[in-house]
Structure prediction request, 162 residues.
Amino acid sequence: MSNLFSHAHEPDYVAPHESEEFEESIVLGVPANEAFDGFTDGIHLWWPVAEQSVAGEASHVAILRDHLVEEADDGEEIIWADVADWEAPEFLRLHWTLGQSQHGSSDVDIHFEDAGEDRTRVRILAMRPVPSSDGAGDDFVCDWSLILSRYARFMGGALKLD
Prediction:
C-alpha cells in the first residue's frame, strides 16, 4: 500500500510529435472505377520504390490481406498500413503505422470523386509528421506529392484544367 499516491513512480512523459495536414488532388481522364483499380490493384506497377521504400528498389508495394505492404526481394513483408475502409470505387482509408512508432499512427484518406465526362478527381488527405529540427527520431515518412505524381503518370497523366 505504500505505492499509493505520492510514492508511485511517475511514468516517463513522451511529448506528442508535431504533425501537419496534407491535402493534394489531381484530375485523371479515366472513370472512378479505373482510377480506383489503378491505385489499388496496380500499386505495384507505379509506386516509387526507389525513393519511397524501406527495403529498396528491388522491392514492390502491394495491398494484401487488408494491409498495404512492401515486399522485399528476399520475400520479407513489411506492413506499412492497415486497410481501414475500402469503398470501391469512391474511397480508401489506410491506417498508417510504418515509421510512426515515435508518433502514434494516422489515417491516409484517398477519395475518388466523379469530375464529369469520364474524369476522376483523386484527393489525398493525411497528417504527416513534421521533421524535428535535430533529425533525431524521424522515421520513414511518405512523400505524398511524389507518390501522387507517379500514380498520375501511370494513369496517363493529370489533366490540366484551366
User: Anything to note?
Assistant: The radius of gyration is 19 Å.
